[in-house]
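step 4 of 6: structure.
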Amino acid sequence: MLSLYSFPFSAMGSNCALHLYAAERTDAECIAQDAVEEVMRIERRYSRYRPDSDLAAINRVAEQGGSIDVDQETSGVLDYAFAAYEMSGGQFDVTSGLLRKAWDFKSGRLADQAVLDALLPRVGLDKVRWNAPRLEFIVPGMELDFGGLGKEYAVDRAAEVCLASGAEHGVVDLGGDIRVIGPHPNGEAWKMGIRDPLNPGEIAVTATIERGSLATSGDYERCIEIGGIRYSHILNPRTGWPVHGLASVSAIADRCLVAGSASTIAMLKGFDGIDWLRKLGVDYLWIDDAGGRSCAGSFDVQMRCASTRV
Amino acid sequence: MSLSISGMGAASAPQIVSGASSYASPTAKMTSLFGQIDAGNTGSITLGQFQQAFANSNPPASFRAQGANAIFNQLDPSQTGSVSKAHFVRGMTALMRSFKTAGSRSAAGAPMASSSSDAASQSLGQSLQSLLQLGSSAPTNNSGLGAQYDASA
């Protein structure tokens, strides 16, 4: 007889939890401990807040300009980052974190264009040469930020650690980036709420997922609202200004890293992200700034929400 | 603190929420943690409550290394047996900061760590393949992931 055990923890600046079915609590604890340690390992390697992280070592070279050889795992992260950059037409850019220096979302003020103008020449993955294992920064003063990849990658790894330890039923949830290890023991799907971007305390839509991953990108965390316009932390790497159009995009894919990239790229594309999502072949839900929403995939015929801007 | 297990089982009760990444300040996190421990909303917590929370949650390694009693003693230097919300939030936030600083110092200058397993690289390779395959097929009404949306929540 399997019982469900939940293990909440904090990582990557988020409230996280593992939900695992096991015969005994101690079994679930052993699996959870390994999975949490894997999440922490990834955080230690790729956190931009830790001066001892591998990302910090890369960024010390990026600051000066020059090259650095990276190991196999970091090569994998960079391969993925460059592929996502290409796929997004240059909008998903791990060098764009530098633009944060122009934006203080607690200040209630917009960025100074002069500051953005000074930063933009140092943003752009096209200014970085990548020939594994060598990473070369041609322009000094650049910075990499794996914020759009790290948590999603950690979700996948935590789920894989659980699966490798024999877990068959459960969910990994790192701050809303989610991967299903397997359905409930009776075969029932997991039910997950999608936060309403226009009313973040509420659930807009519920998804039931038997397997795969769910990730959501939205404009309602870390934003400034001025004159009824929301300026979010999701920044166009070419202009340095927040993107507009979509308030939230959720995507379902086999892997959380892919679901996260799809949702973020769609957000970055604004209303163009709707067509982009349609062509992608993943299950998705978008909600725009005015509350219009639509979704697609195996579930669209069952979705009863209004689709006002298709 | 364990979540309510009874609330998690069926697909009829959503407990997992996906949304934009949020950031909670250390103070906000500790305030939230205090609220979870002080379930009766008395305004203070005892050593027993703290020990139980420590055992049921998954505290950071630096906290585990010290143990619940040692941590509680630092929050309650006068040994009154209980800690108010304000003392808890202030004390825990300071401890978190000091542990992080110590951790950073001890790891500074260490060589770039390699993953002990190929599993990590394999995982990234699979994600890359999955990403590259996106859009390679025509838009579909069936992703094969068994997902369903229901706006009636």
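step 5 of 6: annotate
 - The helical segments of chain B are 26-37, 47-56, 61-66, 68-75, 85-107, 119-133.
 - The first strand of chain B starts at residue 16 and ends at 18.
step 6 of 6: archive
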